[in-house]
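Notebook p. 47: complex prediction with NAP.
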Amino acid sequence: MEMMENYHTRVLILGSGPAGCTAAIYAARANLKPILVEGLQPGGQLTITTDVENYPGFAEAVQGPWLMEKMRAQVKHCGAKVVEDSIVQVDLHKRPFTAIGDSGSLYTGETLILCTGASARWLGLESEERYKGFGVSACATCDGFFFLGKEVCVVGGGNAAVEEALYLTNHATQVTLIHRRNALRAERMLQDRLFANAKIHVVWDTVVEEILGKEGPPSLTGVRVKNVNTHKVSIIKCDGLFVAIGHLPNTDLFKGQISLDAEHYILTAHDSTATSIPGVFAAGDVQDRIYRQAVTAAGTGCMAAIEADRFLTIHGVMAPHTAT
Ligand code: FAD
Ligand code: NAP
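Predicted complex, structure tokens below:
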């Protein structure tokens, strides 16, 4: 964390995933001298994955952390200021908008671009809380290594769950994918790889009811599951459970100040990143309940910077960037 300071800028960007980085690149190149506050996960969600095969520009797969390191370098190269801090409070009621960092720093922005992304969704079981970090995880690339030679379960049926299951076969002897329906929503290519992998077994139409384990230093022994059609309850023995059931937008900070949809995503205008507050723009997963891809996050980050630039021009804001 940086020292406590006061910052003023024409474009204040919250978040350092593909959306925030792209917004910073475009705003810097428009000479708006943006400030980007990185948050607790510098580089965002791609830093917890391995192969990225669908970000254009790379014929061979690139590693998520590597891609985000390059984006951060590009942000700095373009002249944006990157601050290691996380915002704990915002005031969107008047311009300049204000944000307070965990460091105590005060940030004021004539425009604000919200790119706080999304975080893992959990099952919501009491036993899940007990074993988080002791066998229950939401990140196979972070924790898969602990399950070398062991058996694990993965919950979910989207791209993330299938990727996690495939990745875990590098470490575990057996991977059981538990899905609540009888069809996956993951893309075809990933499904093909999943079904071709002899280490992976899929349990359909099934939900996890309870995570079972031992006390002491807590350790997982299995999961109690129920078939949603037959209501038959059974136990699957495993040493680890990876929860990959989607993400929730990081919008707690903005609740009550800006319009959100029923699932708490920031509402933006059609064909625009404009939010319910003039001068506040939102880009990436924090406002995207449909696509949620690195390239779409980058695309909307670009849109937000261009829209912020137009807003500043219309409102005649030419104040220089200062750091006092
Ligand atoms: P995020 O990447 O979520 O970044 C959010 C940023 O906001 C972070 O830097 C965080 O620190 C910051 N932040 C949060 N709160 C605050 C705060 N209070 N103050 C300041 N900053 C804050 N997409 C693909 O296109 N291809 C893939 O192969 C792919 N693989 C994936 C694998 C996994 C395991 C996961 C989880 C996702 C994957 N995705 C993939 C989806 C992709 O990662 C996201 O769509 C993309 O990262 C969204 O970018 P973003 O900039 O909106 O937000
Ligand atoms: P997702 O696509 O929303 O899938 C979530 C899965 O979890 C669904 O299968 C859902 O079941 C299941 N689920 C949700 N709530 C549940 C609950 N309470 N209990 C049990 N199961 C539950 O989420 P994701 O896989 O995390 O992907 C998020 C976004 O990131 C997507 O847009 C995805 O394309 C992107 N992503 C892309 C890549 C890639 O391109 N390679 C990799 C990872 C992620 P139902 O199917 O029944 O709804």
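Notes: The longest helix spans residues 294-314. The mean pLDDT is 95.
Next step: compare against the earlier run before touching the bench.
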